[in-house]
Amino acid sequence: MTTITERLKHIRSQISDAELACNRQPGSVLLLAVSKTKPSEDIAAAYQSGQRHFGENYLQEALRKQQELGAYAITWHFIGPIQSNKTRPLATHFDWVHSVDSLKIAKRLSEQRPAHLPPLNICLQVNISNEPSKSGITLAELPQLCEQIAKLPNLKLRGVMAIPAPQDDFEQQRQPYKALYQAVAKLGQAELDTFSFGMTGDLKAAIAEGSTIVRIGTALFGERNYG
Ligand SMILES: *Cc1c(COP(=O)(O)O)cnc(C)c1O
């Protein structure tokens, strides 16, 4: 049986290889371990092997695991859909939120961020493949929203997150990331240093197009079982 430790090692080497292959700075891509539906024991196992950043999609499940793992120095990222009446626990219990998709949500997160905590790191989720069923803003909305969110005092707008429609072909996987990277570059804002691009199936393509955070679940923790 392959252990989480072995898988982690394998993913880390895949990331290093991809960085090298496209002349990226070694260590420029952060591995976010996506632990949704997986038990706290799995998070603890990855932690023991040096993993510190974990991503969760479901608020109640995340809060429970945070309690169970209170002794661990974990950086928690929220990457799931946001309900506007659930922003307070997000603002209180997370270091990053990748899935902000409206000014209303951003304002609430800023207002509700506790004063003793540093500004909340956020990414705007962009619906880059324009799928009607997916959350996220359009590319056209990006410039104005960035400008408005940059003014909110308790948020730090770090960049963008995307979940493109799945593709098998490497070149096709690259296209949506390339388009979004270029759109952000055009804004010319140096603070936007984060591209939350890439999952188990398209990590290499995402890194080739500038990813700085890959969000990996299946390759690390195995298939998810939604019971
Ligand atoms: C579940 C999920 C992931 C992880 O996907 P895998 O294909 O299992 O690596 C990444 N990002 C988001 C937003 C997710 O919901």
* Attached small molecules: pyridoxal-5'-phosphate
Q: Give me the Rg, rounded.
A: 17 Å
Question: For the residues shown, what is the average pLDDT?
Answer: 96
- Largest beta-sheet details: 8 strands, parallel
CATH class: Alpha Beta
| Coarse structural class | alpha/beta
Helix content: 40-55%
Query: Quick one: CATH superfamily?
Result: Alanine racemase
Give the percentage of residues in beta strands. Answer: 15-25%
CATH topology call = TIM Barrel
**What letter string, H or E per element, gives the SSE order?**
HEHEHEHEHEHEHEHEH
Outline, from the CA principal axes?
A: globular
Tell me which CATH architecture applies here: Alpha-Beta Barrel
| Low-confidence region ranges | none
Looking at the chains present, what oligomeric state does this protein adopt? single chain
Walk me through this protein's architecture.
This protein has 227 residues and is an alpha/beta fold. The chain has a single domain (4-221), classed as TIM Barrel (Alpha-Beta Barrel), CATH 3.20.20.10. The chain contains nine helices and eight strands. An eight-stranded parallel β-sheet has the order 7-6-5-4-3-2-1-8. Strand 5 (120-126), helix 6 and strand 6 form a beta-alpha-beta unit. Helix 4 crosses helix 5 (103-112). The model has no long low-confidence stretch (mean pLDDT 96). It binds pyridoxal-5'-phosphate (PLP). Pyridoxal-5'-phosphate (PLP) binds at residues 34, 36, 57, 79, 163, 199-201, 215-219. Residues 34, 36, 57, 79, 163, 199-201, 215-219 line the site of pyridoxal-5'-phosphate (PLP).
